[in-house]
Amino acid sequence: xxxxxxxxxxxxxxxxxxxxxxxxxxxxxxxxxxxxxxxxxxxxxxxxxxxxxxxxxxxxxxxxxxxxxxxxxxxxxxxxxxxxxxxxxxxxxxxxxxxxxxxxxxxxxxxxxxxxxxxxxxxxxxxxxxxxxxxxxxxxxxxxxxxxxxxxxxxxxxxxxxxxxxxxxxxxxxxxxxxxxxxxxxxxxxxxxxxxxxxxxxxxxxxxxxxxxxxxxxxxxxxxxxxxxxxxxxxx
Length: 236
Fold this sequence. Notes:
Blueprint: E1 6-10, H1 22-31, E2 35-40, H2 45-55, E3 62-65, E4 70-73, E5 78-79, H3 81-88, H4 93-100, E6 106-113, E7 116-121, H5 127-136, E8 141-146, E9 151-156, H6 161-172, E10 179-183, H7 189-192, E11 198-200, H8 206-209, E12 216-218, H9 223-235
Parallel strand pairs: 1-2, 1-10, 2-3, 10-11, 11-12
Antiparallel strand pairs: 3-4, 4-5, 6-7, 7-9, 8-9
């Protein structure tokens, strides 16, 4: 694995795409090949790769997909089997569906990937019951609540962007102070709240903004323009 001096570790949706400025940040990254790029996303590999190609973003050092549940390396996107094995240890979709099926007002919605199971909640007040049920059945999982869609996503407890990023940086031998992180949403929160310099773009969620350390830039620009502005300040 090639060693880079500095890297950008960034979310995709709402951060690199969706609010304009995609071409500007792409051109800047391509003009600075000495800066490695790591993508950390809630998307599956095929969806993430399609977006990277569509916008012409740089080839990654690594991609962490499904909010950090899978890691793929380099231009050939080779799966990290050791990392995947770690996720499988406490992951039991069948037990999960069976347990939550006992709760009135919780409906199975489907699987967007191998690692991500969605449930629809009739009312947010059911959330505490869901968490109690998970604990009672000794299901070690992580939950992400999307109130606008009344959707609860359940993932392996080890599916964290911060954890995946730490593993990647150790592999490529980049120190935390030389990694700049960028994000906008709840599933970026653990990464942004870690010890890295970074930016929360202007369209970032308010509940994430309230929990961030003081050294994280709160950009006045949304999406890619926020990433580009803060990244320039960090590098130059």
